[in-house]
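Justification of resources, computational component.

The compute hours requested in this renewal are based largely on the per-chain cost of generating structure records like the one below. Each record pairs the submitted sequence with a full structure-token output. That output is archived, and it is also reused by downstream analysis tasks.
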Amino acid sequence: MNNPALASSENYGVVYDAEGTKIVVFDENNVCAEFSTDYPIISAKISDQGVTAVLIKDGNASFVWFYDNIGTKLEIEIKNVLGEEGGYPLGMDISPSGVGIAMPLMMVNSGTYKSSLTFYNFDKGKDSPNRIVGSFDYDNAVFPEAVGPVITASLFIVSLHYMSFTINLSL
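The structure output for this chain reads:
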């Protein structure tokens, strides 16, 4: 790996090659999986259940692909296209159960910009084609990646440099 990065949860960890394609999932005793993506990795997060969410980029689109704890790609995907409603992801976090994602997105339209804090749920959100269960827009604001969303139990907690707030969404 040229640029290794690490994310961990209570039971698992994931090491990935930022801007590369390699991923290694491990628990306290073993390496559980080693696999690669087809596109460069922006970031990865892992749930307490071992579900790995991998944010990748492909041209002007980004995807979140999901893998189980042995590296099998799941039939779940989030796609965002720069210039369309999806925007560009600035980071993400995954719920402990692995069924929820919080993602700050940056959107630019006709010279103006806004951030959208978007919440996806692959259990309760299955009636929605894009799995979005909540989204909050902030004009002329950028959510820095370093202070992106943090999910604890079934509560999304978001802290920003210039504002702090709590959003209660049940996962």
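The longest strand covers residues 100-109. The chain has a mean pLDDT of 79.
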